[in-house]
């Protein structure tokens, strides 16, 4: 059985693409968030609450023991940051709800 080489099948029609010039932000454009949010309302995201941070040496890290204290860089009166993908989206006060920690939001969005 021998394969037949068809040089015609190898050729393709090639032509330049003509694109229409568009104006950014024209009257017909819509903001993505103006679209129907029902499409994404059930998408789960992870939020984190940041109480503060600490810089320690590796030696100090390995010296930590159960019951030890790690001093953070924030005061107890300072707000807790709410982070979405590492970006602050809100701030609030640390609270207790039953046996769980909670955050009462005090600033949301661009104010945060």
Quick overview:
By secondary structure, the chain is mostly beta strands. It has two helices and four strands; from the N terminus they run αβαβββ. A hairpin with a 2-residue loop joins β3 and β4.
Description:
By secondary structure, the protein is mainly beta. The chain has helices at residues 7-10, 58-63; strands at 47-50, 80-84, 87-97, 100-108. It has a 4-stranded antiparallel β-sheet, with no helix packed on it. It is elongated. The protein is 9% helix and 26% strand. The protein has a domain at 45-112: Roll (Surface presentation of antigens (SPOA)).
Give the biggest sheet.
4 strands, antiparallel
Element-level helix/strand string: HEHEEE
In CATH, the topology of the domain at 45-112 is named Surface presentation of antigens (SPOA)
Mean pLDDT: 85
Beta content comes to 25-35%
Q: Between the first and last Cα atoms, what is the distance in angstroms?
A: 74 Å
Tally of separate helices: 2
Structural category is mainly beta
> Which regions have little confidence, pLDDT < 50, spanning 5+ residues?
none
Highest CATH level, the class of the domain at 45-112 = Mainly Beta
Q: What is the CATH architecture annotation of the domain at 45-112?
A: Roll
Let me know the CATH homologous superfamily of the domain at 45-112.
SpoA-like
- Globally, the shape reads elongated
Count the E strands: 4
Which percent range fits the helix content?
under 10%
Give the radius of gyration.
Answer: 28 Å
Q: How do the strands line up in the largest sheet?
A: 1-2-3-4
């Amino acid at each position: 059985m021998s394969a037949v080489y068809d040089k015609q099948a190898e050729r393709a029609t090639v032509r330049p693409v003509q694109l229409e010039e568009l104006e950014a932000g024209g009257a017909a454009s819509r903001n993505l968030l103006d679209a129907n949010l029902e499409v994404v309302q059930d998408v789960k995201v992870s939020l984190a609450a940041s109480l503060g941070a600490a810089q320690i040496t590796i030696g100090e890290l390995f010296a930590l023991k159960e019951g030890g204290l790690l001093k953070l860089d924030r005061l107890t009166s300072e707000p807790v940051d709410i982070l979405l993908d590492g970006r602050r989206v809100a701030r609030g006060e640390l609270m207790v709800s039953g046996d769980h920690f909670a955050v009462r939001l005090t600033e949301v969005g661009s104010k945060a």
